[in-house]
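Run log // design_07
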């Protein structure tokens, strides 16, 4: 029986392997058993394995692309097409590869517009939070800041919490426990909805809380990928 701790450990190992660009470890984790449905994260890992020509990566790419197209969340088709291109089973999307951390990108794309937002360096892939730009000394930035007014190099964004709120609404529809679903609907009314939502889940079901973090992370990652495609870029394989 797969326990909550097993799921968390598998996901932690996968995130670490994707971050390190360890294609062999990624293939090993995916081949070990039925993966969690974190297809955005898996897809980035498989892309790395393809770039490193790891045995078994092409088969995993086909499975992942099929799962992404079947789920069809925002950003899923973009990633499926990239996997097809890397595996040689379809044309490579006409997008410029950029070494960008999608999780960091989500931090400036989503959240309270008063505190989030920032800029993406279209040359290096570096993500600059608004705080690091406006208050570099307080944010611990000790390097000379580039010219953020260079419109050809930087793309500015403002944070937005609307997509995150819709994620909560959609997630509630997948909760099998009707009473928990009603409590969650009450929790997301008014200010402080995100905190109350997570607190309600945590008090009621740690399994559902873990599933929410997986769900939310996937949705954010996909939206960041779609946003990148809109500016003509894709994530470069590590």
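design_07 sequence
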């Amino acid at each position: 029986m797969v326990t909550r701790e097993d799921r968390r450990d598998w996901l932690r190992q996968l995130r670490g392997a994707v971050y390190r660009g360890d294609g062999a470890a990624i293939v090993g984790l995916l081949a070990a058993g039925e993966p969690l449905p974190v297809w955005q994260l898996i897809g980035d890992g498989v892309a790395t394995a393809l770039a490193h020509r790891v045995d078994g990566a092409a088969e995993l790419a086909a499975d992942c692309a099929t799962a992404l197209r079947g789920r069809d969340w925002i950003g899923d088709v973009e990633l499926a097409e990239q996997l097809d291109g890397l595996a040689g089973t379809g044309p490579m999307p006409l997008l410029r590869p950029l070494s960008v951390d999608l999780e960091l990108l989500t931090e400036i794309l989503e959240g309270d517009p008063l505190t989030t937002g920032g800029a993406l360096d279209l040359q290096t892939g570096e993500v600059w939070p608004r705080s690091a730009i406006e208050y570099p000394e307080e944010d611990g930035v000790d390097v000379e800041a580039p010219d953020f007014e260079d419109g050809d190099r930087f793309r500015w964004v403002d944070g937005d919490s609307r997509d995150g709120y819709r994620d909560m609404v959609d997630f509630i529809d997948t909760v099998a426990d009707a009473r928990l679903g009603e409590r969650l609907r009450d929790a997301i009314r008014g200010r402080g909805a995100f905190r109350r939502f997570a607190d309600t889940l945590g008090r009621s079901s740690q399994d559902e809380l873990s599933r929410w973090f997986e769900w939310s992370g996937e949705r954010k990652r996909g939206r960041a990928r779609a946003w990148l495609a809109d500016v003509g870029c894709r994530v470069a394989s590590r």
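The longest helix spans residues 206-230.
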